[in-house]
Amino acid sequence: MGRTSPARTGRQRRYVGRMMTVLVNGLPGAGKSTLARALAAELGLPLFGKDAVKETLADRLAPLCPADRWEWSRLLGAAAGETLWTLLRDARGAAVLEAPWLGDPLRRIVRAELDSAGVGVPQEVWCDVPVALARRRFEERVPHRHPVHPERPGEPDPRWDAWALTAGPLVLGPVHRVDTTGPVDVPALAAALRAAVRAAAAHPGDTDETREVSFRSQ
Which of 35, 61, 100, 188 has its CA 20 to 30 A from that of 148? Predict the structure, then answer.
């Protein structure tokens, strides 16, 4: 096996320092998709959204849809999630990803997928809204969502009780808590993310994964 030259190793390290992986996370109804679209455009990065991939798969695979709509949603959701990581690897770690990564079990999975994409320190944007507001927003849009999503108007959804107790950021890198109860200053958020990436590149030995920055729009 050939040896990697010092110059090539340096270039690889500089590339890793410059790449920006942004995870836009939060409860359903927290405003993730809206913020992620605007943020990706501001940063000049591709956007990979779980629901967009899931709905596309559902449209193409509709003839295979089983009777159990919840199982169908789960299967396509898992496929969509795997697709996000494949796209991130192809993008060499430079992208905005948007999905609801909620619950401790997902933290280990996301960390492993980031490792496989060569991402050491992601920037996480947590869409910070009260649970009651997120739930109201979500329930208002249920009748208008793509039919692959299994929720139906008026049906109880016990997941909200669990989310109210446990939902929070993954904390796999710096967390930018963004108040999404109203309009967000996207250029200012993008500037904060760029500054955080520069700081991580300047101090590659800093492994603190607990830093949080509250970002409130004016």
Answer: 35
Give the number of domains in the chain: 1
In a domain, 16, yes or no: no
Tens digits of residue pLDDT in 86-144: 999 999 999 999 999 998 889 999 999 999 999 999 999 999 999 999 999 999 998 88
pTM of the full predicted structure?
0.83
Give, in degrees to the nearest 5, the angle at Cα 137 between 132 and 138. 95
**What's the domain range around 108?**
26-215
DSSP lists the bridge partners of residue 215 as: 178
- CA angle in degrees (0–180, nearest 5) for 30-87-10: 110
Residue 216 near residue 179 (C-beta atoms within 8 A):
yes
Q: Can you tell me which residue has the tokens 């993310």?
A: 193
In a domain, 96, yes or no: yes
